[in-house]
Amino acid sequence: MVRREMIRCFVKRPGQMGNIRFVCNTLPDLQQIVGGPIECIALDAKTILICNECGKHMNLPVNFPIEDDLIVGTAIITGLSSDDFSSLRWTEDRCRQFVGETA
Fold first, then answer.
1. What stretch of H or E contains 14?
2. Strand, coil or helix: what is 67?
3. Domain assignment of residue 10, yes or no
4. What is the pLDDT of residue 39?
């Protein structure tokens, strides 16, 4: 049996509060969460945002603003190692602040 690595992520769906979850670190599992092919946006040297690459063309609902753009559809914030995704180092509060959620 092949063991799939679980990584700690912050998952944010449009119109819902985000939360910390453990997800399988495989491309199919990440694609299933965002609903299609993934796009990766670096947030800092060890943190990355994963969203649906085709989300705007699919008219997915707006999730939150980022710089001069909008993230649509479900988004994942997770860690980044030298060659793969890894567990998130940010706190849940930091993630909530990033996506514009207030406590």
1. none
2. coil
3. yes
4. 97
